[in-house]
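[job 0412] stage=complex_fold ligand=phenylalanine status=START
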Amino acid sequence: MQDLLDSALARIGAAQTGDELEAVRVEVLGRKGVLAQLSKDMAKLTADERVARGKFINASKQALESAYDEKKSGFDRESLAKRLDSEWLDLTIPASGVAPGSLHPITQIQWEIEDLFRSMGFTVLDGPEVETEFHNFDALNIPGDHPARDMQDTFWLDGGHLLRTHTSPVQVRGMEKLGPPLRMIAPGRVFRNESVDASHEHTFYQLEGMMIDKDVSVGNLIYFMKTLLTAIFKKEVTVRLRPGYFPFVEPGFELDIRCLICGGDGCPVCKQSGWVELLPCGLVNPHVLRKSGIDPSEWNGFAFGLGLTRLVMMRYAIDDIRWLQSGDLRFLRQF
Ligand code: PHE
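[job 0412] stage=complex_fold status=DONE, emitting structure tokens
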């Protein structure tokens, strides 16, 4: 009997894996196991022998069970340790591959120009993208039958409303709200019903500027425009001033810069001309002042309408306007 018990204990001790141990358990502690064998011929024993055998069986059962439990918990610990090792996660390591976003190049340039003009005493104004016909056209000296309305293909909405075709209506709102003297800029999104190509978008950005004071001259206008261009390009750019017609300025100018993409040789962005219209401007037409309740015999001023989108294209040599609203991350990550 002792041999039987010893060999059973030895087999438990020899199990190498949890599965092996389980197999041994069935054989040793199961219904046909060692304990069953020990109890087999109980009926033939005398009363004393039976007591002795009973004690031995109980002791064997305890010995086997505790041997089994010990072995089993050893395997459990091992497999837990293995799992903890393989599923281990270091929460103190910084996450990898989190790329911070960046501001759109148009926003970047817009903020730069806002800072510049704020430093010269200008206020930054906002205006609605859905405008009234009055603010977008009439108040700017472009009545309904005026041929200049055809210069800007308009998205018309119901009830005399439209998507603003330029930021100039914010001039009107600025004059109405703040009155003279006035120094304001108004960056914003504008819309034209045009077919899209490398240099045209139906949606683009302008930055309007207006200064109204006493005795404002073309000299003042040119000073501010030069300051603006030097700050933006941080280098000498070749410019030319042409007469330009806009009903809300008189005299009106087109300030062009030599195309920075082709250097003036001609490319799709400058329409092969070597020059890019960047900064239409002029002295505010007295009719416009009068329409906004400002006395033109007392006040005058200048205004300009910088093409922000064009400016970004020139600064970063972007040869197709469609990139700017493409949402293409390969493009945007460069800024
Ligand atoms: N609003 C004009 C345009 O979009 C530009 C402009 C603004 C011209 C201010 C002169 C003065 O075409």
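The chain has a mean pLDDT of 91.
[job 0412] exit 0
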